[in-house]
Design goal:
alpha+beta; 110 residues; 4 strands; Alpha-Beta Plaits; globular; 3 helices
């Protein structure tokens, strides 16, 4: 069965995005205990609000967006709003290994 990815769009309190990003990164053990993993956390750069974070969690079993959000955001500080949606990969990524460096990615087959 394919992995389930959940996209979390998180609005942090003004100028609190860095502390929230660090807090989310520290959630790895809690996510793993629940059967998930943190795929990555990114700060918005162009076209989105300054204090918005994007996080993606990956789950080996099907999970509802609300359940994944509850595990990731349990007692999160400085959050004004969050929306989560389940995503199913159609082509990429072909495994659940998170990117290990920053930058733009393309298919190695191209």
């Amino acid at each position: 069965m394919a992995a389930t990815y959940v996209h979390h769009r998180i609005a942090a309190a003004p100028r609190q995005w860095q502390g929230l990003a660090d807090w989310l990164a520290a959630r790895r053990p809690d996510l793993e205990a629940a059967g998930g993993a943190l795929y990555g956390v990114w700060r918005s750069q162009i076209g989105r609000p300054r204090d918005e974070l994007t996080a993606i969690t990956v789950w080996s079993d099907p999970v509802a967006a609300a359940a994944a959000q509850a595990v990731l955001m349990d007692a999160a500080p400085d959050v004004q709003a969050i929306r989560s949606a389940v995503m199913t990969p159609t082509l990429r990524p072909d495994d659940t290994h998170a990117p290990d460096r920053q930058g733009n990615y393309r298919d190695a087959q191209q």
